Amino acid sequence: PICCAQENVLQRVLQLPVVSSTCESLQRTYVSTKEAHPLMASVCEVYERGVQGASALAMWSVEPVVRRLEPQFAVANNLACRGLDHLEEKIPALQYPVDK
């Protein structure tokens, strides 16, 4: 695929079949582990709440920096998209789920 300015390289990577199938597999394992082990589920829930709070605080604190560096991020994103285009051409396995 040809990269356009509005594309986000992270979204593109997450949409690659090899990446998305790996994430789905990890999520299924995480959920089934929590269901099978109640103690693990309560520890995970505390951890998840902590991560959500820390993420919200981090987003709030870095927002001014992100706004100031937006032009540089756009250039880096464009370069990364072009690199991903090249990888997708050279490594066809990226277009297949992990089990294939």
Automatic annotation (TrEMBL):
GO biological process: lipid metabolic process
PANTHER family named among the record's database cross-references: PERILIPIN-1 (PTHR47138)
Keywords: Lipid droplet
Cellular localization per UniProt: Lipid droplet
Organism: Pedionomus torquatus
Name this protein carries in UniProt: PLIN1 protein
Pfam family, one: Perilipin
Similarity comment text for this entry: Belongs to the perilipin family.
Gene: Plin1
